[in-house]
Hints:
Elements: H1 2-25, H2 43-66, H3 68-93, H4 98-143, H5 146-155, H6 157-166, H7 169-204, H8 206-214, H9 222-261, H10 267-278, H11 284-299, H12 301-327, H13 335-378
Helix pairs in contact: 3-4, 3-7, 3-9, 4-10, 4-11, 9-10, 9-12, 9-13, 10-11, 11-12
Amino acid sequence: MAADRAEDAAEEAEEVVESLDEQVMDPDQGLGRPGRPLPQHHPFYIGFFGALGAVLAVFLGHQLLAVGNYLVLIVVAMFLAAGLNPAVEFFMRRGLSRAWSVLVVVSVVILVLAGFLLAIVPVISDQVSAITTNAPDLLDQLQRNRIVQDLDDRFNVVDKVRDYVSKGHFAGGIFGGVLGFGLKVLSALANTFIIVVLMLYFVSSLHSTKTALYSLAPASRRDRVSKLGDRVIATVGGYVSGAFIVALCAGLTSLVFLFIVGLGQYAVALAFVVTLLDVIPMIGATIGAVIVTAIGFATDPHIGIACAIFYLVYQQLENYVIYPRVMSRAVDVPGSVTVIAALIGAGLLGVVGALLAIPTAAAVLMLTKEIFIQRQDAR
């Protein structure tokens, strides 16, 4: 009996559904007969969703450009965190856990930064002030130089400067320049603070971040992705730490030389400038050498000649002895690729792009060798 009742109820339900369908399909009853769905290859369909996708892409592109400066800071902080990772692994190989290793490295970084700000910055400030105060005398001494006098006779530089000052544009330019320089200094300090905070955060969470990113790969390829990712991080970290070691060698060597040659009153500031510029690939060391040599010539021609000879010899030593030994275990990039990568990076992101170009090129070459070339060889 129950089965018969169930069958009757099902038949009644089907009849109700059929009657509703007839009302809908009948134009005279209900809402009319629906048409066929619009095919996906219809021009209107393609044009509408294509235009919608283009608008969305343009909108997202503008948003990325709006936050481009912050993205650069994040990338720089990640590279610096990768540079500190070898120090963390050093303490881990000595028996410390990763948490304690990160704590030790972060504490050392904070102490070094605090010590630099408290001890070195006042000295650099005093020496920069001394350079600024003595700049007119240095310029007068340069004008007595025969080469400078010859250039002035040819291009009339001194008269042009005097005309510029006498016409009244000099004061406005100075104040505008000072204001712009002050704003740039504040912006640089704020960016430095952001980079340091992000760097410390990335160092402390590097292991968990890697694990989360590797988990996005399929389980069948997760092991290989993890190994390739660790190799990329090791390459970037090795280059960053190696670049700072090479720059530190240049700065300390310059500091000792400047005290010996007779530029002790500017030694710390100039050595700091050489250290910062030496991090920039290809041209940084040359710019630092030119700055120091120019101040040496302005102080005393004999000191200038000694500076020129010293940096000429030291750059050969750095290029052929120090740099290859420090970087031999970090990156393996051909010289032509290094130059091309640095030029492209500098064209895209300026100095930051030049700094990040070489480790990025090394990572791309490694991935190409391990993935694309192996796949081509297997065919």
